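Example record

One chain of 360 residues, shown exactly as stored in the release files.
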Amino acid sequence: MNSLWTPTTLGHINLPHRLALAPMTRSRANADGTPTGLVPTYYAQRASLGLLITEGTQPSEDGQGYMLTPGIHSQEQVAAWTKVATAVHAEGGHIFMQIMHAGRMGHVDNTPHHRDLLAPSAIGANQPMYTPTGPQTTSAPREMTVDDIKQTVQDFRQAARNAIDAGLDGVEIHGANGYLINQFLAPNANIRTDAYGGTIENRARFALEVARAIVDEIGPERTGIRLSPGLAIGGLEDGPEGEDLYRYLIGELNKLGLVYLHIHHFGNDTFLADVRARWSQKLLVLRYDRPLQDIAWDVEMGLADIVPVGRWGLANPDFVERLKAGAELNEPDASTFYSGGAKGYIDYPTLQQSPAVAVA
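Predicted structure tokens for this chain:
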């Protein structure tokens, strides 16, 4: 596990080790999309993880899918995120914002304007979705026009500028986990017959246009992207060309010099090795259901440079210290993941607050 504790660089920042905080939706935003006053404390508590990646943050009103998720498209939101960045930096951490457009993975009742959801094609996700009136099925989207696509690319660009203006260290484009960019990649969600559908190159076009716009706005050294090859989620399927599509997309992204690629990985290590060979910058790998004793494996095997952690970081603000000490971890309380308020958010004890028994 010694490989985890070697310092590294990520563009313009120096990191003390190879761990990071993965992005996790926590539903601690106000109705206007501003992060609540608890959010600076939450991220600052976890600053020892070095690199923190925020929850998915919508670049526009159209980008919201879930209830009480934050945005980065108004000046009020920028001001609120400035407090988060300042709190993290005061504790010695660095913070990237994940910019996420939900696309068809949402419900109109969760948006501030109640307009139709946007998607590459008018194909619903048909997934359960919690709304202010209780559980419903995701709303049917409308197919984006070319003008919608161009506007959304500009929304991503402006959101990245807003994040940097708020004092964050960079942004992560959310191209994974069933959301809008991922929807353009999936042949069963994207049946367009124009320049954004059909061939591998066309289905990857939107992702690349977003990446180029953000790189042009804030620089490649401040721009990362998350992808989830092989993950069937939100009704999406990669199809028979899936691996070839990701090889093409990753190769084109690599030409842009993005500071990192973040892979949400689900078990195909042969393909992960192929990704590693094609990617020149830092590679982050978050494995599904990884045992704690294997946390350093990808770094040791040369398959990853940085290992993001999700629920372990959520429930253990001092995860780095606990891991170094071989100490017992707090268990995450799933009932509070999206509940709002301080419980299950900023009240998990540290070792100093509640000494844990060392793991044998």
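Notes: The longest strand covers residues 94-99.
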